[in-house]
Structure prediction request, 273 residues.
Amino acid sequence: MKYMLVLLAIPALLLPAACLIYIVYQALPALDVDLIFGSDAVVIGVNSVGQALWSQISGSLLMMSLACLLAMPMAASIALFHAFWASHKQKKLLTSILQVLQGIPPIVYGLCGLVVLVHLLHWGISLAAGAVILSIIILPLLASNTIHALERIPLEQTESALSLGLSKVSVITRVWMPQAWPSFLTGLLLSMARALSETAPILFTATVFSGITWPDSIFSPVTSLQTHIFYLAQEGSNEQAIHTAWASAVVLLTLVLIFSLTALYLRRYERIS
Prediction:
């Protein structure tokens, strides 16, 4: 049985590794420092992809950061309501709602954002619309991780703190936060990686292909690595565009891996401590 399980697990390990090797191989002709930090615009046919990839990287990180800033207070509020005030039935209902929201395809969120934020509220294709949609997408993940982080705190510590006369605010700041912050930070990093991985929602609500280095305001469009890769992949007959798309994919994967591996390290740190 052990050897059978190992044989079944080998494809799950080899296929992602083979994909990564293939992506890096395809990206090598275009992958260099100038692609990221260079000042010369790369021209693809009649279009220009802008000032290398720096504007796309900064746009992706900016949208990710704003989405997390919007989602964190809502996730913390949901988790605190679940811990302090929700009844057993309300807890089950809240957990089910979070699971349903997490299972909705991101493209559906993107279409809703296009209808409500872009057209109905007249925000247009903008950084604000993309950040709001991404925050809604990562909210179930962040809220669930925060709930689980609070549930792992021993009930005896909370009851002891309340019996000593500590207010609920003091319980949160003095008892829960010192123990739950590694788990909360882990969930936040995973949410950041999730936000960096989404393409369809921001394609409908926030991003343009080129012509923007930094948005003038939150109601201006922005460029991102995700949509940059998508548009370059449309240029199937242009070899330079395809190699640039692969190189952009390597940069995006590197960013996602940084957040994911940091979250894995924090999770191991929490288990050890």
